[in-house]
Specification:
The complex is a heterotrimer of chains A (91), B (565) and C (168). In chain A, 26% of the residues lie in helices and 32% in strands. Chain A is α+β, with helices and mostly antiparallel strands. The N and C termini of chain B lie far apart (46 Å). The chains are: A alpha+beta (91), B alpha+beta (565), C alpha/beta (168).
């Protein structure tokens, strides 16, 4: 099962994903995609360490489905977190 | 309006600096998230799905044009150029950076505003009738007591770690626009036989997952004792409210567990010990605060004929707006104007910075620079000359703020839902938009008449679904969004909780179901003057259940909701 | 490492904490649980040494309201910082029962709460901190005005306004 590690960045609260180089990035496409339990465990440990280091809040692994190269989280909640609100805001 | 003096100002300045230090301690790791969370919540700062959200208090809904301009400035400088007005008469910003939060508090302090205790297990922003001090039916202007309660509750050292949050609402009118029976404490002002004002005290109301209509704990209390009586209620709650389960921690659960008579006995015994102490409101303090709420310099005018029937032929759109959006003012020749933030298709309660500025200008031009926020997520211009109504209507129309729908089917209360909120199970804004577009035709809207539709995206009930004439509750069923309908709720002086119609519907079926409910009402109502709520109370659920599910009743269904794009 | 701050100073705790099953020592100040106080009240008073009573958050201090003049210390426990009962208890102990001895906050006591605790009548705090005194100083500087009259005797803003008007 494909997974990514999602969190909110401490400084601005924005949704971020853990990338291969250890950076937290705002695009789900740029995050690490893993599909085995061991890699998942390592990724989560890395995220929790960054939470302890006050970089991010509440890192969790979420399941995603990849279709035509596009990653979509399976849960509606996480899909909305990744893509932003489904309604257009007044500006 | 109340204005901060040097003491108020110093307190909010110090609070902003305290929070600046706490944020710094969090950023450099001296505070963990667990330790920091209650501190940021006490300053109205949540972490939502996409960013931090800041909830700013609008004390009992009163807002000056100058403050609204500052809210616009904050929206532009620190957010994405808009804000969201809530059912607690507050404003929320959805896209706040932790690094900016203390600066925002400083900017708010500069115009006598704050975000203190807009979250956390403490006394929240005191809410009130949004027509307070202006409504023609009002018996007593409650704002001076609201301000006393505000000051009493802010940074109260004894009650900042209550079992759970605590909400107080106040009204001075027989027509309850403040939903006082649905608050932890509701205060209803009236005049006794001697013509003296006093309060009925209601306790233990609330919505959330256990909705309860509050019970009268005291039929009458003199205004000078209202703070001490509130303290007695709070102290008994603080000592005996449950702390083992956050879903059982509100005062309503305690009142229900003890029974209102036992709770009253405890409160009265406590109150006897403190009633003549330091909390008794001193006449000079009352006079000092009351001076802020003196009426503006009204002109001597005559009432104009603004009966919609007279104007209808000349300008039906204006007549429709007058009928639904304008309310009677206590001063002859003036009117109260509701500014609808519910243009169909828009997000209920949202307002752009540009429109905030424009509205502030209109408030200066037409309403002595004063506005209100209503608990139905609209704004109000409280002091408009009747002779200015037409010009104001045109100006509001140009801003798309004159939809003639106050109290009607498209004036929908909706919580932010899963588009923004970390607690939500389902979205609520798209549902509100679909329904409002369904009732976009103003003739149909007026034909249906008074009808409140309230939507919550989870059982915490921030969208007040329990007390909507039609309530909509979003529920998650195995990862899919479904919506349960309730009928018959009301938050006014005859408050009632809605009854569930049946199993949840997918979002795509909600507008159709609402339409069938409304059509049924139109068929069976006892004339045009019987509103939806009264028809429901007279006819009961069955006819409406049939309208929703058909004569065979609800079938087991497996229908997918709309996919997230 | 837990540290005791009393009257704004770091203090060695002169009280020995006694558990429910512990024997009462012949000499020295003791801090005892409520049950021990209730069972051995006379014996504890006869010792002629300072006595303190430790109350858990579900033990209402009304139980010892009549005894406060015999006590040198009352310790109110905060099982978690979220449990705010101790704030109400403290005001009752000071304002209603008239206790003038040491009122100590123990348990999960956070720096950010010290100014509230001071306001309701605590004058001693047991905190987990490396640098408790510096932290207390920071917390004490947070606010210089308050809306509410409370147990610390400081004037509320309403009282200050009245003063100002009288003299100003």
């Amino acid at each position: 099962m494909a997974q990514v590690l999602i969190a909110n960045r401490l400084s601005d609260g924005l949704v971020v994903f853990l990338a291969a180089d250890g950076a937290w990035v705002e695009s789900i496409a740029a995050g690490v995609l893993i599909d085995d339990d061991r890699a998942a465990g390592e990724l989560l440990d890395q995220g929790l360490a960054d939470a302890d280091n006050n970089l991010v809040i509440d890192p969790i692994l979420i399941n995603v489905t990849v279709r035509d190269g596009t990653r979509t989280p399976d849960a509606i909640r996480e899909a909305i977190r990744a893509a932003g609100p489904t309604v257009s805001v007044e500006t | 309006m109340y204005r901060y003096d040097e003491f108020d100002q110093q307190l909010v300045n110090e609070r902003a600096e305290q929070f600046r230090r706490q944020v710094r301690r969090r950023m450099n790791g001296e505070l963990t998230e667990d330790q920091f969370k209650p501190l940021r919540l006490m300053n109205g700062l949540y972490l939502q799905l996409h960013a931090y959200m800041l909830r700013v208090n609008v004390p009992y809904g009163c807002l000056s044009a100058r403050q609204l301009r500052q809210l616009a400035h904050i929206a532009r400088k620190y957010d994405k150029g808009y804000g969201h007005f809530t059912t607690r008469q507050n404003i929320q910003y959805n896209w706040i950076r932790l690094e900016d939060a203390a600066d925002i508090l400083t900017d708010l302090a500069a115009v006598g505003m704050n975000a203190m205790q807009s979250s956390g297990n403490c006394v929240r922003n005191v809410t009130a009738d949004h027509y307070a001090g202006r409504a023609r039916d009002e018996l007593q202007d409650p704002r001076v007591w609201c301000e006393l309660l505000r000051q009493y509750s802010i940074l109260n050292p004894e009650f900042s770690y209550l079992p759970r949050k605590f909400k107080i609402a106040v009204t001075g009118a027989p027509k309850d626009r403040a939903a006082v029976a649905l608050h932890d404490i509701g205060l209803r002002m009236y005049l006794n036989e001697g013509g003296e004002p006093g309060f009925e005290v209601i306790v233990g109301g609330g919505q959330g997952r256990t909705p309860v209509i509050g019970k009268t704990i005291r039929e009458w209390i003199e205004p000078e004792h209202v703070i001490s009586y509130v303290e007695a209620i709070l102290r008994i709650y603080n000592l005996y409210g449950r702390r083992d389960n956050i879903y059982k921690a509100r005062i309503k659960i305690l009142v229900n567990a003890l029974g209102i008579d036992k709770y009253r006995e405890l409160v009265e015994a406590e109150w006897l010990q403190i009633r003549d102490g330091v909390l008794k409101i001193a006449p000079e303090e009352l006079a000092r605060i009351d001076a802020y709420f003196q009426p503006p310099a009204y002109e001597q005018l005559a009432d104009q004929d603004t009966e919609p029937s007279q104007l209808h032929d000349a300008d039906p759109a204006f007549a429709a707006w007058l009928q639904s959006n304008v309310a009677e003012h206590k001063v002859v020749g003036y009117a109260i104007v509701n500014v609808s933030l519910k243009s169909p298709g828009k997000i209920p309660g949202d307002l752009s910075a540009q429109k905030m500025d424009a509205l502030a200008d209109l408030a200066d031009q037409y309403s002595f620079g004063e506005l209100r926020v209503s608990h139905r997520q609209n704004l109000v211009l409280v002091d408009v000359k009747q002779s200015d109504l037409h010009a104001l209507w045109q100006a509001l129309g140009a801003l798309d703020l004159a939809t003639p729908n106050i109290g009607l089917a498209s004036d929908i209360i909706a919580c932010p839902g899963l588009d923004f909120c970390a607690l939500a199970n389902t979205r609520s804004i798209p549902v509100a938009q679909d329904i409002a577009l369904h009732f976009a035709n103003s003739t149909k809207l007026q034909h249906v008449g008074d009808l409140t539709i309230n939507i919550s995206g989870c059982m915490n009930a921030c969208g007040h679904h329990h007390v909507g004439n039609i309530g909509i509750l979003g529920v998650d069923k195995r990862g899919q969004e479904f919506f349960q309908l309730t009928l018959g709720g009301s938050s006014d002086e005859h408050a009632s909780l809605g009854d569930r119609v049946g199993p949840g519907l997918p979002q795509s079926e909600v507008p159709g179901a609402i339409e069938r409910i409304v059509d049924t009402y139109l068929e069976i109502r006892d004339g045009k003057d019987e509103c939806f709520l009264n028809t429901y109370r007279r006819c009961g659920m069955e006819v409406f259940r049939t309208a929703v599910y058909g004569p065979a009743g609800p079938a087991r269904r497996v229908t997918a909701t709309r996919q997230v794009a | 490492m837990s540290t005791l701050i009393k009257d704004n100073k770091l203090t060695e705790d002169p009280f020995t904490r006694i558990g429910v099953d512990d024997a009462i020592p012949a000499q020295g100040a003791v801090l005892v649980p409520l049950a021990t106080w209730q069972d051995h009240r006379e014996k504890l008073l006869r010792r002629g040494e300072p006595v303190g009573v430790w109350l858990k958050s579900d033990e209402h201090p009304e139980i010892i309201a009549g005894d406060v003049n015999h006590l040198q210390l009352i310790a109110l426990e905060f099982p978690t910082f979220r449990d705010g009962r101790g704030y109400s208890y403290a005001r009752l102990v000071r304002e209603r029962y008239g206790f003038e001895g040491e009122l100590r906050a123990v348990g999960d006591v956070l720096l950010e709460q010290l100014h509230y605790m001071g306001r309701v009548g605590f004058n001693a705090f047991e905190v987990d901190s490396e640098d408790a005194l510096a932290e207390l100083e920071i917390a004490a500087r947070d606010f210089s005005v308050w809306y509410q009259p409370s147990a610390d005797g400081r004037a509320s803003s309403a009282q200050l306004r009245t003063e100002l008007k009288r003299h100003g």
